[in-house]
Amino acid sequence: MSSVINTTIKPFKTTAYHNGKFVPVSDADLKGKWSVFFFYPADFTFVCPTELGDVADVYPEFKKLGVEVYSVSTDTHFTHKAWHDASETIKKIQYPMLGDPTHAISRNFGVLIEEEGLALRGTFVVNPEGVIKVAEINDLGIGRDAKELLRKVQAAQYVAAHPGEVCPAKWTPGQKTLAPSLDLVGKI
User: Which residues does 76 contact at the CB level (< 8 Å), separation at least 6?
Assistant: First the structure.
């Protein structure tokens, strides 16, 4: 398996359920802003609503950073609406919920479980040029943490804005970064 890091996302078109409406979403909508793609296996399941609710709770922080979050499953936008209407947790969601019934988006990001027609728990941070800067894929039983995702977005944005600097482990905004050089080799 080759890495998707620093590759440009492939073109796509789909329909999302967003703020009570069905809206078209394509790769063209991503240009010029940071994006997060948050893949999950299916609506009306168990771990998925805990993750999507966690992202919904942190969503205002993503928006402050100019980041749009797109949740994606292989369900349809109709199923997303039904889940939204049925679940108190999912009713909190204000970000677009993309339907991927053709599996094209999940396949393009390398998270599709072909024999099941479901997506793994894939998380991708995409820069304004459409290039993937963070990729994480979890097995179905392992949930993710929205605050850690937010930290990764902050680090990706910092590195993009400060060429020549890198963010060490557990870095958060305001903490010291590193400027890789021969002088640092073996001294960290």
Answer: 15, 99, 101
Element (H, E) at 90: helix 88-91
Cα torsion angle, 24, 30, 33, 38, sign = positive
Distance CA 63, CA 68 (A): 6
Q: What is the pLDDT of residue 179?
A: 81
Chain-centroid distance, C-alpha 11? 16
Q: What are phi and psi of 183, to 5 degrees?
A: -65, -25
- Looking at residue 87, its pLDDT comes to 96
Phi, psi of 55 (to 5 degrees): -65, -40
Pairing type for strands 132-138 and 13-18 reads: unpaired
Q: What is the pTM of this model?
A: 0.93
Residue ranges of the chain whose pLDDT lies below 70: 1-2, 181-188
The catalytic residue positions are 48
